[in-house]
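Slide 14.
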Amino acid sequence: MSYQDILVYVIVMAAVVFVARTVVRQFSGARAGCTKCDRCETTSENASQPTSLIQIEPVPKDQE
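Slide 15: predicted structure.
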């Protein structure tokens, strides 16, 4: 077994751990803003109101 094989195994294992960790976090609701507990700052009232980043105004009739 050469160093290249070992490197490939390490990279694949790191990818597997990353994907498994992501799946576990997704289904457990940890740090996902799930609003299941009082520890999260996001509430259902805040989540339903989108944040406006850019205000778009209508084009005046004389500039068309």
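Speaker note: The two ends are 72 Å apart (CA to CA).
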